[in-house]
Amino acid sequence: MVQRDRCVPWKDVLGPWYWSGNGVLERVVRAVIPGGVIAVSAFSSYFALRHQEEGEDFDPVTGVHHEVATVRDEAGQEREFELWTTCFTARELTLLGETAGLRVDAVHGITPGGYRAAAPTLDDPELPLLGRRSLHAGSA
Questions:
Q1: 14 CB contacts (<8 Å, ≥6 apart)?
Q2: Residue 19 pLDDT more than 70?
C-alpha cells in the first residue's frame, strides 16, 4: 500500500456517508504516514434541517436528507434525479474520525468557496474535519 502525507481527495474515497461502519475511512487513515494530515468534508445535519425546502425530507433516525433535483444536460433538456445525502453533526464527524484512528484537530463550519477556521454554525452547509494519523499504531 502506498503511503502519503497529503490530503485525500474527497472524490477518490467517496465520503463519510460511505465510510460509516465498513472500514473505508480506517483504510484511508492507514494509507497516510503516521502524523500525516487528512481533511474530509461532510454535509451538516443542522444546515439540512434549518434550510429544508418544500418537498425535501430529513430522516432523524438515519440522518439522511432526501430531495429531487432538476439537472440540465448539454442540450438544455431537464431531467429529475433523487438525491439522498447522509448528513452529520460536528460531534458525529469527530467520533467517526476518532474511531478510524485520527487525532481530530478541528471540525469547522464553511460554505462552498468560503473556507475559514471557524466553529460550525447552523447556517454552514459543510463541516470539514482536519485530523492527523496517530504517530503510534492503534491509537488516535
A1: 24
A2: no
The residue behind cell 474527497 is 10
Residue 32 pairs in a beta bridge with 4
Q: Identify how many contiguous H helices and E strands the chain contains and give both numbers.
A: 5, 6
The answer to whether the beta carbons of residues 135 and 35 sit under 8 Å apart is yes
Q: Cα–Cα distance between 95 and 23 in angstroms, integer?
A: 14
Name the grid cell of 25.
475511512
- Report pLDDT digits (tens) over 83-95: 998 899 999 999 9
Whole-structure pTM value: 0.76
Sign of the CA dihedral running 121, 15, 4, 136 = positive
Residue 20: band (very low, low, confident or very high) from pLDDT cuts 50, 70, 90 = low
Joined together, the cell numbers standing for residue 37 give 494530515
Instruction: pLDDT band for 13, please (50, 70, 90 cuts).
Output: very low
Instruction: List the grid coordinates of 63.
Output: 440522518
Q: Do 122 and 50 touch, CB atoms closer than 8 A?
A: yes
